[in-house]
Amino acid sequence: MKNKSNLLLLSVLLGGLLFTFLFWKERLAINLLIYSIYLLAITFINPDVVKSTKLKIYGLAHLLAAVLVVINNSDLSLATYYISLLLFIGFGHQQQIRTIFTAFLAAILQMVTVPFNAIKQLSQISIGNVSLKPFFRLIKYLFIPIIIVTLFSCLYAAASSVFAHYAETILTNIGNFLDNVLHFFFKDLSFERIMHFCFGLVLTGGLLLAFFDKSLEKAELKGKEQLVRIRRSIGQKTIWYNIAETFTGNLLTRKMALKTEYIVGIISFAALNLLLLMLNAIDITTLWFGYEPSGNFSGELHQGTNSLIFSIIMAMAVILYYFRGNLNFYHKSKTLRALAYAWMIQNFILIISVLIRDGYYIEFHGLTHKRIGVLVFATLCIIGLATVYVKVAKQKTIFYLFKVNGNIWFALLLTFTLINWDVLIVKYNLNHVDAVSIDPYYLTSLSEKTLPILDKNRSKIHPSTNNDSEIAKVYRPEEDLMRKLDQRIGYFKERYEQESWLSWNLQDWNTAKYFGVNK
Asked: Matching InterPro entries, A to Z (predicted)?
């Protein structure tokens, strides 16, 4: 047991050194892939980690996310990288967890509690016959007081400028003293580099050292995917019961409480179906066929899309409320189910209207991240409605919805990360410049990977006189656009020449190759 603990702590130390070597004053690129390979290798070598199929799947997913950072090097790829890493760590150390939300929370909890995990691991180390447990017990006693003193010092500094001045002076003197000590023994090291190493050490420890408390895992195991009928005693009340009792008074205490809820549900779904039928009829007749933009076209589409998205979320929430418990087993619930299914179908038609609105927006104003986001969100709503249908039809729990939708969302996140969105947006807009009222100020503000495409199509980058998009509101001369583009190209060349191989990524390499930049 001690040998295992010693090897794990040695891996954390090597991980901290690797971290400061890979990321000190470097951009996030191939260094993230190298760091991830190290974390994956240590995790799968660790004998305390069960090498289940689920862990291998999430390990491969994280490796794919790391590779996509090197290939696409976008903000989305970085976000996917961090999410996949936390999910891999969460499932790796608590493999009985079933939802990505709990795994994400478990990984965060593990990162926050890394000092306690490290002290627990270090206290098991002994040098010869000398145990280090008393020393780390003393550190454990001092750790929480230090955190409390630091917190209150920050609060007092915010409240008093004089206190803040003295606190800053003390911290500066301590920093200078430590920096001088380091320079005396190690001339090439700096205090900032030591702090960077410490951060890497803490981060690696949080990713590799398992949190010893399994209460979160045990709590999630109580979640069931299949609904069962609950026969409550008179004194047993759930949170839903207490909320409903606030609005219905003594109705719930009667024997006909379930029937009352059924009748209220029938009236609610019938009224909502009629209301949504009117809206869908208006959309089908005015939007689906023969639509011609007029007036504040952009504003109407933007406002309408936001309202419809919110209404779809509320629709699913209403369905989940009524089919949360014993109403699923009520012998007369067929009518209620039919009304709920009808409302789901109508909400699906509503999603089609959202897609058509967004399609018109793209047709007349081109692609942007927000418009692509609407398409993605509409896709998620379709998936959500499909899983809600399964929940009602198969009498599943809300826990089932979280589990299934979480896995689907993560798979879609990885899928969407495969696409280089900035390049797609620029290519689409410039290829349709004659038919689309593009926003050149938006296009020239996208990431540096689009610079070669913009440089090739300088003649197409000019302000549109009829552009009423949300970004381009003020006319600026075309020369400003070319000057901005030239400045960005010059900045890229200067930056790329100064970077080491640790910051290498495919997009920067292609851009540098186009402009003839060599390191």
From this structure: DUF4153
